[in-house]
Amino acid sequence: MSSEHVVVPDAAEEIVLRGIGASPGIAIGKVLLLEKDGIVVEERGVDNPAVELERLQKAIDRSNYELEKIYHTAREKIGDEKARIFEAQLLILSDPVFLEEVKKKIVKSRKNAEFVVSTEFSKQVEQLKRSGNELFKQRAMEIDDSKNRILRNLAEAKLKSRFEGTPIVVTSEFTPADAVLLSRNQVLGYVSDYGGARSHASILSRSLGIPAVVGLKEATKHVKDGVDLILDGYRGIIVINPSEGTLKKFRDRKQWCEQLDTELMTEAGKPALTTDGRRVSVEANIELLEELPLLRPHGADGIGLFRTEPLIIDSDSIPDEMEQADIFRQAVEAVEPNAVIFRTFDIGGDKMFVGNHSEQNPFLGWRGIRMMLDRPDLLREQFRAILRTSAFGKCKIMYPMVATDEEVIRANEFLEEAKKSLDAEEVKYDKNIEVGVMIEIPSAALMSKEIARHVGFLSIGTNDLTQYLLAVDRTNELVAHMFEEFHPAVLRTIKFVIDAGHDAGVKVAMCGEMAGNPLATVMLLGMGLDEFSAVSSMLPVLKKIIRSTNYKSARKFARQLLKMESVDEIKKSLSDYLKTRFERIYFTTLSEGDIE
Description:
There is one protein chain. The chain is an alpha/beta fold. The chain folds into 3 domains: 6-35 and 161-251, Glucose Oxidase, domain 1 (3-Layer(bba) Sandwich), CATH 3.50.30.10; 49-154, Enzyme I, Chain A, domain 2 (Orthogonal Bundle), CATH 1.10.274; 268-589, Phosphoenolpyruvate-binding domains (TIM Barrel), CATH 3.20.20. It has 25 helices and 18 strands. Helix 21 (518-527) crosses helix 24. The protein is globular, with a radius of gyration of 25 Å.
């Protein structure tokens, strides 16, 4: 989401920047600008490479020591599971193949250690960033952080992590190590120019209970040390130089939010049952095992989307069947007796799979189920891993990027082959494991009734579905403003899919971002959606809205919305509805519009 400079009429000095709410909460305080000046790396020839190798090893050892300390601090603060985020960076620093290659380059090129480290690490970072995949970008940030740590230790420089007071820290890019180290101080909140809600740093911020807004792009350009700042992690905004009037509004809002959070978490375990008796399932989207401890406290009715791609990205090779099964089992045991829906690898166009081939448009390319069908060895192995896991708890399988029913039929055939191979080995598994597909391509939406005949459920992925319906790449700044999930075409397509699924006798879920947007909850409920799946932090809010809503009234409201022809009319109706009936939720979660 791009930032924007908003001049508030009664206080021209105020600046409002919009980003992404990464960790809920409101913070009001003074700025501490954490500037990360990159170490200048110069290329130098060396007479004795052995000296450089020794310097490099000392820097690596020091970096490992620092990360081990951070890891242990994280374990003390947030527990073993969530602290495992740092294992990825520790593995990077102990990767014998890659580090041996770096050392060989130092000897062969007779260049200084700083130059070779910077060059070789940066190659990996740039390759991952070019993929356009959010998970790859996360991996790139971890490698970049490891590079900077080694460079800093080569230069024997110190990184400031202790300070006085209770500031809101503003920085260009926020790392997992920053989240843990800075939390040893009395930090009120975190703000960064870059980052996303699903990054490791954001997950740690939520676990630590520190409000955060990321992806602001130019926050560091607008602030300096000591400036007054308001951070709203619910709505993803910051206010620089707030007026007294704005301060009062946010102090009141902060009190509201804290009271609401307590109330929501107390009731999170209650079922999502409407006032007239319709029950829906409210589940969590996850991609990291570190998120598992958040699920029960937030009232998750299971895992509606377990993204399996991080297994590839966080490893130097594709994990084998038993490695995948071990990870999947942890997820199943964490939510039993509820189910986990494992989405098969939704990744493609990266060098790992396609060699030197590059795709001009990976969004329309070789990814998701189409890639896995071309690599049946990977698909069968993942099927076997999930089937093995099903012996320990309830599992479901979901195919991404489905365009035709033929793809579903072929995937199901490979699943049957995987079952037969396990039967031959006398391995126990759920013989009736349920299979579903993601509806995120217009062709699949139009053929959803036919596709539903081959599966047990449908799950709508609104992010890609909206992108494909409107022909808008939301990562392209030139057209991102045209990405509108409340467009009439999107809403009518969603309703079409729900009806088609029900006509075919299967349940319909939603795991896209719309499912976690309180503005859409009553509308989706009224459309007949059976299951909501969203980030865990939003589940108590969704359940509160559902429990307070009459299903018959919601259906009437949804019918009215589906007749509307403009985005503005639809969004105004949704906003008015939420504001009138759920005022506190409206003011704590609304992410659009100016400050009211």
